[in-house]
Amino acid sequence: MKAAEGYFRDPSNVTKDLVRFNYHHKEDMFDGVSYNKGGSILHMLRNYLGDDAFWAGMHDYLKTNEYGTGEAHQFRLSLEKVSGKDLNWFFNQWYFNSGHPKVSYTTTFEPVKKQVKITVSQDQLGGNFQFPLVLDIYENGKPTRKNVWISAKDKNDFSFPVSKNPDFINLNADGVILGEFTENKTPDQYFAQYSNSKEFLSRYKAVEKAAENKGPNPASLKTLVAALKDPNFRIRMKALSGLDLTKSDQAKAALAEVEKIAYNDPKTLVQAAAISALTKTKDKKYLPLFEKGMNAVSNSVKGSSLSGIAVVDPSKVATLASSIDLDGASDDLIAELLPIIVKNKIEKQMPAIASTAAFYPFLKFQNPELGAAAEDGYNWIMSSDNLKATENVTKILTQVKKQIGDNPQAKMMIVQILKDGLAKKMVVLKANPSSPTINQQVDAINKVIEAYK
Fold first, then answer.
1. Rounded distance, CA 208 to CA 214, Å?
2. What is the DSSP letter of 13?
3. Within 10 A of 444 (CB to CB), how many other CB atoms are there?
4. Could you read off the pLDDT of 348-382 as tens digits, one per residue?
5. Residue 116 has what DSSP assignment?
6. What phi and psi values does residue 109 have, to the nearest 5 degrees?
7. Which of 48, 244, 251, 392 ranks highest by number of CB atoms within 10 Å?
8. Integer Cα distance of 84 and 36 in angstroms
9. Is 442 exposed, middle or buried, given 0-12, 13-18 or 19+ CB atoms closer than 10 A?
């Protein structure tokens, strides 16, 4: 799931082949196609061949080419030798081509024949894909699994016996195929999907949709509440992030369970998510829980607890924030703590927020409140003599250059914030001409500006 999200995040990835023989920059070898899409492709290949054949083929490829070099075709030949299957079609469309399928469907119920016809359509730019597809047909809330083969054409029709007009169809039910699947389900249908699917991705998507629609529909709230007890910790986290316990109906349905999770969930990431959910209530009765969390081993629990303390007892924040090690912290944790760090000018944590603060113009479009705090953080960094924080800014803006491609607006925006930052550093230099590090920061910013020309 994470691999696919990384691939879809950058629209330019759609035009890139997995196997490329020329790169504009050496870092392009480690982009969202090579790594994120590549991982998803290997997952599809393993699913198609089966674990035994896939790993045996992998072993043959490694042994055949040990101490030498290997290419995609050699990998294909090893897999074909072990499995006895022709894989040219797979490698041609996934390794030596770009893009992914964009899939939608329609259904037609034939009451006399007691059949449902499912028409699966592809509408992506470029050629059509072929692939095995898993779909679940729901009747009376229960799924019946069907495995079909999608041929490389605009439309594929399949007919199946049913007892009545199906409740809904769940395409790509096992989540294996890398693609975009358009579905129009009601909150009640997503609740049925969550309640009856054994597949992680199907349950996760149902919870994701419930989080988007929880306000006006009780079925969405039922999905979130049920998901608080899901065996998979990522689904529990998603459910927690979707709750707003300041709303009376959500608090009535979920508050007691969220409190239990905050204290006792075996996964510290889930505990942290529960603490964040409780923080939204601004209830001072949770201060002991937040203070206890500051002694946790987990930085996620510490971070969420600090956010809670910032809401219910802000006088304690400055001292506590310095005690958290944010080296390697997740983007979500940094985003949660950035406003607190900037507001309280906690200089020890300035390098930790630098990479996020550097994107403040873009964050403003996605999350205006966080974007404003990030802008304050960026200006704080550029008005300081903090070498590590400035290096983190210039490093991330150098790395992102290859991702924005030929987008002139993005380039212009980044160059402008660099020039603004440079002006602030010159003020710092003028005030501290003997500083051993400020000149290094000025040079680093100038170098990035030059790279964008």
1. 10
2. G
3. 19
4. 999 999 999 999 999 998 899 999 999 999 999 99
5. E
6. -95, 130
7. 392
8. 28
9. middle
Nearest to 222 by CA among 285, 282, 141: 141
| Encoded tokens for 57 | 């083929």
Per the CB < 8 A criterion, the answer to whether 241 and 234 are in contact is no
Contact 17, 38 (CB under 8 A): no
3-state secondary structure of 158: strand
| Adjacent-strand bridge partners of 149 | 132
Q: Inter-axis angle of helices 368-382 and 408-431, to 10 degrees?
A: 40
Short-list 52, 60, 14, 46, CA closest to 33: 14
Q: What residue type is 19 in one-letter code?
A: V
Torsion sign (Cα): 120, 126, 131, 134 = negative
Q: What is the pTM of this model?
A: 0.81
Alpha carbon distance 376, 353 (integer Å): 11
299, pLDDT greater than 80:
yes
Total residues found in the chain within this entry: 453
What are the structural domains of the chain?
A: 2-94 (1.10.390.10), 102-184 (2.60.40.1840), 346-453 (no CATH)
Distance CA 216, CA 210 (A): 11
Give the sheet arrangement for strand 168-171, strand by strand: 142-150, 131-139, 168-171
Measured CA distances, 57 to 53, 73, 79, 145, 292 (Å)? 6, 13, 4, 29, 51
Tokens representing residue 29 in the block: 């070898």
